[in-house]
Amino acid sequence: MDWQSAQFLILGLGRSGRGAIDLILRFGGKPAGYDRTPPGAADAKQFAEWEEEGARFSYGEPDEALLNDIDIVVVSPGITALHVLVAAAGKRGIPVIAEIELAYRAADCPIIAVTGTNGKSTTTSLIGEILKREGRRVAVAGNIGRPLTDVVGPYRDYDFIVAEISSFQLETIDRFRPKVAVLLNLTDDHLDRHGTFENYGSIKARLFENQNETDAAILNYDDPAVRRIGNKLKGRVLWFSRGVGGNLPGVSLTYGEIRSRIDEDEELVGLERDIAMPGPHNRMNALAAVAAAKVMDVPGKVIRETLQTFPGLEHRLERVRMIRAVTFINDSKATNVDSVYYALQSFDSPIIWIAGGRPKKPEFERLVDLVNIHVRAMVLIGEARKMLDLTFEHFSDRYYADTMEKAVTLAYRMARPGEIVLLSPGCASFDMFDNFERRGDAFKAAVHALEEREKQDV
What we know:
Helices cover 35% and strands 21% of the residues.
């Protein structure tokens, strides 16, 4: 790619779009960028500096004239194929590529890419931690927060890039070819954009489409939809599984032992109890990470030590505090029912469940049996309160709160020593908070405030 002479138009100037602008400028190019709204005051200085380097920006209603003399359109994940400028670019024959595609063309080290409906961030971070413990120079990027374009190209020097990849990012790839590609699981998600589950799965499968026999495809044998994809791939297929896939190439967890079987070499990597992260879903995430690490020839000792010390990520079954023998767990990232399904199975103690927010899909019926087993009382918040109330009308210990602080206080008053207060909303946060991070932060702040009050009462 001729970075200096090609005329780029970047659509969407959020995190990914800004990364693309910066990458092209580092190569000496002069990109154009478009967004409906101009940057806020906090970012104005950065945009001014980019303009001094030769970038130019447009805002407001999209104008097809922006495509004049453009050679390549780079889209941020939030830009769909229905966007007027994307459609117009297609009619003009202008290539439209994803930000991760742009990054791939600038990358000079192997990329380990992770996708799936749930567990992407945790698995991506764990793989990164394993490689770092071995002493490799590693960048963790992609949908996890840092744009992939920020870790490639001039002035970047890594041995590996571990990238979380979303379905939105895979829609417009072309040559993107990870050395190791991981597919964790597939459940209904983002169907408002992708239409059907089948189409969603097909888009996720694009992660593997440019691989060949020298690359590794790592897939969840225990997920039927994922297994169907794995049976059609050109790359070297490895599986991870809790038991049933134990005789296949890959990594299995059987009788409490984590075993890898790569190129006919079998190794006891560690034990199930070595996995510090709570929950059965994190067992699967750990197996996927082990498989990726073994493909990259990381010694089993390094992998085991990392599993023993990696606690998981913030807002994902995060242990916040124990107050008078009541443990508070922040699982604000649980924005869908599948995530709550895993969370409720992660603890042996009775749970006081804080749930609610803006519902994505009314599928709470799937949780009824688990709630009956694991939940002793629930506190309902947000727009989903009525929906949850109807779903669990048989459940007598239901309570309501209009703020996170009230929800935490109410849950604590009901909790008995040895029990768990679990924020696992099963909903988006946008009715009460800007994002799931803010919601989790509010939960933690309420817990800390409660702890201070309890200290004063002693």
